[in-house]
Each structure stands twice: as C-alpha cells, then as structure tokens.
Design a protein that fits this description.
The chain contains 3 helices and 14 strands. The protein is an alpha+beta fold. It has one domain. The protein starts with a helix and ends with a helix. About 9% of the residues have low confidence.
C-alpha cells in the first residue's frame, strides 16, 4: 500500500535538512567594527617630511558572503599637499626646481587595518609598498607618489578563507584620492562535527517517524 501524504511529508523534511546543510556550508557572516591607516614618521609639514594627510572612512560593516562573492566599501582618503618633493641631494633638488631641503622620501610606510569580529576576531593588516620621486608635482603623466597594497588572505574555521584587497593610490598631482576595500570569500569552512551530527540525527529522526507512521497504518 502506498502512502502519498507520508511520502510528500518525508520529502519535504529531507529537503529542509538538505537546504540547512547547504546554507551552513556556504553563507558566512562577516562583521567589521572599524578600519584605519597607520603611517610612518615621514609624513607631516616639518623639514624632511612629505606633506600628505590620511582620513579614515570605514564605517561598521555586517554582511553575509557565499563562496566567490565580494563586499566592497570605502576605506579612506589620502591628500597629497606637497608640490615639490625633495631628495636631500642639493644638486638634484636644484635641477628639479625644488630648491634645497631634507629628504622627503624616507619613512613613508602605510598600513591599512581592518578590525573583524566575524568570522573571526582579528586585526587584519595590509602593508603597502610606497614611494616618492624627487621633483615637482606638476600633473604630468609621471607618478610622484604611490601607495601600493597587495591582497591579504585570511584563514578561519576549518578550511575557510577570505581575501582583503585595499585600493591602491597613485598621485601625479596634488589633491586627494579616495580608495575602497574588497572582502571576498574564497572558501567556506567545513561544518563542525557537532553540527553535522545534529543534522544527521534530525534526518534519522525523520526516517524513524516515517517508519512508525507507516507501520501503524
């Protein structure tokens, strides 16, 4: 004897369990509480310092990502105020029209920092390669100052991973440039054994109920 209603009920239950397993394996919640620049001692308005200012624009972020998905948001703004970059070499500075000054190309380190509370509690740091070239900042096609970030891969859970990519900044004139941050989930963590056992127990329970109902009819 066939039991159409029982079969439909069991199929629906199995589908719900499969959907729960799929969601637990792919959707990962992210939370970012803050983000900010840290910079070297070579920035400022003093002698031998590069006149550039850094502004943090990160706001608290909460989002879910599936594998291959990306969340983008503003990170910060950098303004280059220096119209002439000194090399510290008197002859070079005179030839490039910068006069005589201290070397403004030293200690220009820049690090982008993001504070995560999900999917792990951690400070993720992206250290940039930076550089400045002696001479006037005159708006031609040459780069006068740059901040170049490389993507950082962060591992979490059992096999989970995501990539943080901060936007690069290249200046060939004075003024400000705003950059962003991208967070991309590249691998979802494997569900913990306790979670898998719980879902498996639920599935066995569904089968057991179905069998009891069938035997009582």
């Amino acid at each position: 004897m066939k039991f159409p209603r029982l079969s439909k009920w069991l199929s629906a239950g199995l589908g719900a369990v499969a959907l729960t397993l799929s969601m637990s394996a792919s959707a990962v919640p992210f939370s970012i509480t803050s983000g900010y620049f840290t910079v070297g001692s070579g920035y400022g308005t003093g002698s031998g310092q590069l006149d550039a200012t850094f502004t943090n624009l990160v706001t608290p972020q909460s989002f879910d990502l599936g594998v291959g998905e990306t969340q983008s948001f503003l990170f910060g703004r950098v303004q280059l105020n220096e119209s002439c970059i000194n090399s510290g070499n008197i002859l070079v500075d005179l030839l490039t029209g910068c006069g005589v000054g201290g070397d403004e190309r030293n200690n220009l380190g820049v690090t982008a920092n993001l504070v995560f509370t999900n999917p792990l509690s951690a400070l993720v740091q992206n250290v940039a390669i930076t550089g400045a070239f002696a001479g006037t900042v005159n708006g031609d096609n040459a780069t006068d100052y740059f901040i170049d970030f490389s993507p950082v891969t962060v591992s979490f859970g059992d096999g989970g991973a995501f990539v943080v990519d901060i936007g690069d900044l290249y200046f060939n004139r004075t003024g400000s440039i705003t950059n962003g941050a991208n967070v991309t989930l590249t691998a979802a963590p494997v569900p913990e054994p306790a979670t898998s056992m719980l879902l498996g127990a639920g599935l066995l329970g569904l089968i057991g109920v179905a069998r009891r109902r069938r035997s009582s009819l």
